[in-house]
Write a sequence for this structure.
């Protein structure tokens, strides 16, 4: 039913690269609740605390009892496709380039009837469907109806692919392949069908285990990339920046010091130099080219992934300077997200809990294995979400932080 | 008075020889560049910064008519000078830092011991006192307050991987054995020791007794070290004069330098001995 995606032909170098456009992006403050949930991969609707009715579209007050006690609650998305239509003509510049485009009306079991984008696997109305949220190219939450049962080549649906960052047939840069995490990410990308993976490695004279196995993969090209060296970043961006569809920044320096446990600022500076300034150098050099290639055919530039830390949300004092550097990176990633949005390139932040590596040796389990982290990262690309919190510790911290950041701060500093 | 006159005359002659090319200046310095490797310690220790450079402006909106950069590096980045205060053994000596070392020590005669064949055969080659005695049998006794430079041609390894030469047991680069360090200090009163690799000590110098003997004894007796030297193959075994002044960093342990050597002769290609003959 859905044609499988094929490796795209090589780009015709004498044709102008199509400029990226965005779908309509304006939303009310109330409507942004849908986007906030979609950024996490959740489908939430407003539920009235007073009368219990579920409503769509989002509003400031309950459509039935006018109460303003509205809470965003997760929805199953199950419903009935009651009608569908295919748009062949649009005055909107974004959709004009993408017609035909399928839309449908879905009556949710929870009550409201919604207009949703239709996955090509959905049978003609009437039929049962499952509505989920996705982020569109403008980064706003939209509704997409899926068939109840898995169909073949599900991820290859063209409408879905406009809302996800699937690495299949894409060219990816992993900025640091020397760590176990970097190598696991490379393996996961290759397994997910990435066409080409550039893998950065700094200080080539320091031999690290595992790099040879990565280099042996036919999709992999090792490149000398040192995020502390502006000239290195500039040079590599000049060489490959115009071809990178997905950039995954796995480079980090992690030392385990608070303020009092290490005199001087050298360790903290080394963390900042990679974790914060490294991201800034990458963003300045790779950002513009990727932003300009957001609509460059089937394998356009689509995503930028930052390996942050759950400690970016709240400082973990035993790893205090590391936490601060990741908080700085989180702040910068928000700037990057704003600047990349015009190109339709998604910025995905990964907030893992403690990774099972040498720098977390003294922390008790549960710790996140590099393979589990890599899987979660590739899943985030396929789902097209903006923020993920892989692992038990990250999930728990995130829930506590959402509930009350001040309480978490006191608990962590106890 | 006549001694002063003779000195004045030798400087006048030197200046004239520099202009005429009878005395040639050889650059013993590696280019400071981000890709040049720096010494690496276990990651739990503090680290020496590599050379890094950031553009301030280049005739652009950041500065319309001028080009300049900010750079950063450690005191021990690139071709550099080690002051006695660098090592714990020299911590309490007088005049032991970059701003207080006697400047008279920073220009001096160089004895160049060619170990390039041995280093080529064995990256862990250690220079011993016997090697130096054998060298002296050919070239004469090392004079007091000379610099001894260990030529290994290691600087010709332009690939940083080959230059650093790490394996799972660490770095493998040539350097001095413990006995030669003691010999040069106690019996030859050298000013300092210079090498082409990243340290004055061998890559495996940690496993010698004491660990890093060149650092330990040279600095402990107020002598200096030069590292990452280049072009030592252009120096005669004896007869060169080197300039190796560090930046005047207050209480500094070392400094990148522009190391220069004065050598007789105008032709760089010929063997030093042939050059001397050709001049005569």
């Amino acid at each position: 039913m859905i044609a499988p995606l094929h490796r795209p032909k090589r780009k015709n170098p004498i044709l102008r690269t199509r400029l990226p456009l965005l779908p309509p992006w304006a939303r009310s403050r109330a409507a942004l609740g849908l986007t906030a949930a979609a950024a996490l991969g959740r489908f939430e609707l407003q539920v009235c605390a007073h009368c219990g009715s579920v409503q769509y579209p989002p509003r400031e007050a309950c459509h039935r009892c006018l109460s303003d006690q509205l809470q965003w609650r997760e929805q199953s998305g199950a419903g009935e496709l009651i009608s569908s239509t295919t748009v062949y003509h649009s005055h909107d510049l974004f959709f004009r380039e993408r017609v035909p485009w399928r839309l449908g009306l879905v009556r949710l079991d929870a009550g409201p009837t919604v207009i949703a984008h239709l996955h090509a696997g959905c049978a003609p109305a009437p039929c049962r469907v499952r509505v989920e949220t996705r982020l569109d190219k403008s980064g706003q939450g939209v509704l997409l109806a899926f068939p109840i049962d898995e169909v073949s080549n599900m991820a290859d649906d063209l409408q879905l692919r406009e809302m996800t960052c699937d690495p299949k047939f894409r060219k990816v840069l992993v900025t640091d392949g020397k760590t176990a995490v970097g190598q696991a990410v490379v393996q996961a990308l290759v397994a997910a069908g990435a066409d080409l993976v550039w893998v950065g490695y700094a200080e080539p004279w320091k031999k690290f285990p595992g790099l040879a196995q990565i280099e042996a993969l036919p999709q992999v090209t090792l490149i000398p990339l040192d995020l502390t060296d502006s000239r290195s970043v500039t040079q590599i961006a000049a060489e490959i920046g115009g071809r990178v569809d997905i950039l995954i920044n796995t480079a980090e320096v992690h030392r385990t010091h608070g303020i009092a446990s290490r005199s001087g600022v050298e360790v903290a500076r080394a963390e900042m130099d990679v974790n914060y300034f490294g991201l800034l150098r990458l963003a300045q050099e790779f950002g513009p080219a990727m932003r300009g290639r957001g609509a460059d055919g089937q394998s356009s530039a689509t995503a930028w992934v930052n390996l942050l830390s759950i400690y970016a949300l709240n400082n973990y004092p035993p790893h205090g300077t590391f936490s601060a550097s990741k908080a700085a990176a989180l702040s910068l990633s928000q700037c990057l997200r704003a600047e990349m949005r015009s190109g339709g390139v998604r910025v995905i932040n990964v907030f893992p809990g403690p990774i099972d590596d040498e720098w977390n040796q003294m922390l008790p389990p549960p710790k996140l294995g590099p393979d589990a982290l890599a899987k979660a990262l590739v899943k985030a690309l396929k789902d097209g979400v903006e923020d993920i919190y892989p692992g038990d510790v990250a999930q728990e911290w995130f829930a506590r932080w959402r509930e009350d950041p001040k309480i978490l701060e006191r608990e962590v500093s106890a | 008075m006549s001694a002063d006159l003779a000195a004045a005359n030798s400087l006048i002659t030197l200046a004239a020889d520099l202009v005429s090319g009878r005395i040639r200046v050889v650059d013993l310095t590696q280019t400071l560049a981000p890709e040049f490797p720096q010494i690496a310690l276990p990651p739990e220790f503090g680290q020496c910064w590599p050379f890094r450079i950031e553009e301030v402006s280049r005739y652009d909106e950041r500065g319309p008519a001028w080009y300049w950069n900010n750079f950063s590096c450690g005191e021990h980045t690139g071709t550099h000078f080690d002051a006695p205060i660098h090592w714990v053994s020299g911590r309490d000596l007088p005049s032991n830092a970059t701003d207080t070392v006697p400047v008279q020590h920073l220009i001096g005669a160089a004895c160049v011991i060619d170990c390039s064949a041995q280093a080529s055969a064995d990256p862990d080659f250690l220079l011993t006192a016997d090697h130096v005695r054998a060298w002296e049998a050919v070239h004469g006794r090392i004079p007091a307050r000379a610099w001894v430079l260990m030529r290994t041609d290691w600087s010709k390894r332009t690939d940083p991987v080959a230059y650093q030469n790490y394996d799972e047991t660490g770095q493998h680069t040539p350097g001095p054995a413990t006995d030669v360090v003691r010999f040069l200090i106690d019996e030859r009163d050298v000013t300092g020791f210079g090498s082409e690799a990243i340290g004055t000590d061998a890559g495996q110098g940690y496993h010698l007794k004491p660990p890093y003997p060149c650092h330990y004894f040279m600095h402990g007796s107020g002598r200096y070290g030069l590292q990452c030297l280049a072009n030592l193959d252009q120096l005669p075994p004896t007869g060169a004069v080197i300039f190796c002044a560090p930046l005047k960093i207050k209480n500094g342990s070392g400094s990148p330098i522009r190391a220069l050597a004065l050598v007789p002769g105008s032709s760089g290609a010929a063997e030093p001995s042939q050059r001397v003959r050709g001049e005569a």
Remarks:
- Chain A touches chain B at residues 203-207, 226, 228-232, 264, 266-267, 270 (CB under 8 Å).
- Residues 320-340 of chain A form the longest helix (21 residues).
